[in-house]
Protein 1
Amino acid sequence: MLITAEDMSVTHGAAAVLRDVNFQIEKGEIVTVIGPNGSGKSTLIRALLGVLPPSSGRIRRAKGLRIGYVPQKLSIDASLPMTVRRFLSLPVRISDDVALQALTRTGVEGLADRQMVDLSGGQFQRVLLARALLSRPDILILDEPTQGLDHPGINAFYELIEQVRQEIGCAVLLVSHDLHVVMRASDRVICLNGHICCQGTPSVVRNAPEYQALFGVSDSSALAIYEHHHDHIHDENGCCHD
Ligand SMILES: Nc1ncnc2c1ncn2[C@@H]1O[C@H](COP(=O)(O)OP(=O)(O)OP(=O)(O)O)[C@@H](O)[C@H]1O
């Protein structure tokens, strides 16, 4: 077990944003959080990172857990010259070799001398990912990493995540709106709407009434990827588990 949320609730001021969230992330798995706008996805990530304390319940992290974080947005002042190479050395200085290795791993090895503000959306995400990998994380946490990318870009990014997972064996927790790709690329999906509506393998979540109520019954051919069936049960709240 890498991270566990136990009966975790989070409030912003008087508003309860997350309530009674329970889940755990195991070594090496890819878990995706999906949910409508304002459902608490970023709040969940911030709580897991430890920057937002739960109002009740708790988060447990494995001892010495290393987290690599790719934020949803990072604005870089356009008037501030900053090469990719220099960006990778903030805040911890790294050698040219290590920088090149990180950029090569994420497929942007030719960009070291480019200005950060001149990168395309896809290149920027890959540089952020390269930076997150520098700490050799046990878990990578990415908040909507494919926002603004086109379809080939989204697919390529997910392939890269899978490749990185295989190479370094890290777990991956990501927030995403790309439902079809998510369903294909995740080991497990958590469907969030202020609380966990349902969670499980993609096929379990796809068939859950809570998921279908939030996202509609999607084109089954696009989602018919995992056809091995899992047994699951519905608890007294109508939530499903495998
Ligand atoms: N710092 C804050 N202070 C007060 N309310 C906040 C704060 N941050 C988020 N909220 C509120 O908490 C709720 C959940 O926000 P959050 O950003 O976690 O949702 P989200 O699922 O990530 O949304 P999106 O998909 O639009 O990024 C929203 O109603 C939001 O307005």
Protein 2
Amino acid sequence: MDNQTQINVYLITGFLGAGKTTLLNNLLKSLEGSRNVVIENEFGKASIDGTLISKQYSQLYELNNGCICCSLDEELYDVLNMLAFSDERPENLFIETTGIADAGTVAEIFKREDVIKVFKLKKVICVTDAETVEDYLNETEETIRQIVVSDLVIINKTNFVSANYLVKLENLMHSINPFAEIFLSSDGQIPLEILENKRDDNFDISEKPDAIFTHASGHKIKTVTFKTENEFYKDYLIHTLNVSLMLHYKQIYRIKGFIKLEGSNEKILVQSTGKRLTLESYGTWNENEIPVSELVFIGLGLELSSIQRILRPAIKKIAAEKLKSMKLSILKG
Ligand SMILES: Nc1nc2c(ncn2[C@@H]2O[C@H](COP(=O)(O)OP(=O)(O)OP(=O)(O)O)[C@@H](O)[C@H]2O)c(=O)[nH]1
């Protein structure tokens, strides 16, 4: 790792016309004076969005030959390389994806070991259009995925709909992505502080009930929570989840949760980004409680029984007597 500071990355996604460029322009204006770089991804060679972005950036890179989530990762990689080796690194990098991008696949790039040394993915932001998002949710798989992988979901164009409908939309967003912060805005205006909220600040699985969102095609997007007082074998867990993500990518949209690994008191945050799984340390488990590992799966037609089957080989069963004595010793203090 070199001694230069990491570059903060903000990935802006959201369906066509939702207000991504409008939000980006507001952020650039608020951050005027910082070194901000923008990567704009757009279909087709002619740059339209590039000209719509206000000039409050230090550098603009336009990737216009396809969608970065499927065909442009090498081109994106080249730009990242350039930024990493520039004399004066930017402070912030904003990436605006095409309206149909799979943001999870783009976010995945920022989990690569070499990329992580220089770039810190601070937030995946999904901009939605209050007036049309419900229809898009029913019609397009992309919109669901964009919401599910985001840390911050902005319901934009709130001036087009009633207050009652906004409450319904907020609930809908929560049911699709229980991890995201939901923010209402118009004209893509958000306070800068939101960008600083830690990615997992409001992440408390136990308060999120399992939810079902029925897609118009009849498919059910479900949130299924698996809980256990047992521990996980690290290697088996990584293997079984990676295999499941590969085989069932079209079905499993997201995995997120805290777990306890065999022989360690570290609290581990597990999450999937695209097809990639990451495990990060998140402090330690509270000594006065029996650790309960919880993994939330969000996806199409998921069933708890199938999740149990996937996880079974990775679980190290703690004998009932041992668990009982651990509980007793905690009670006695
Ligand atoms: N009335 C209204 N219009 C808005 C609002 N936010 C954005 N717009 C307008 O909506 C249109 C689309 O906004 P953009 O920011 O270009 O949307 P985008 O998501 O970048 O669009 P694509 O790049 O095509 O996917 C523009 O004409 C904006 O001025 C809002 O809150 N209210």
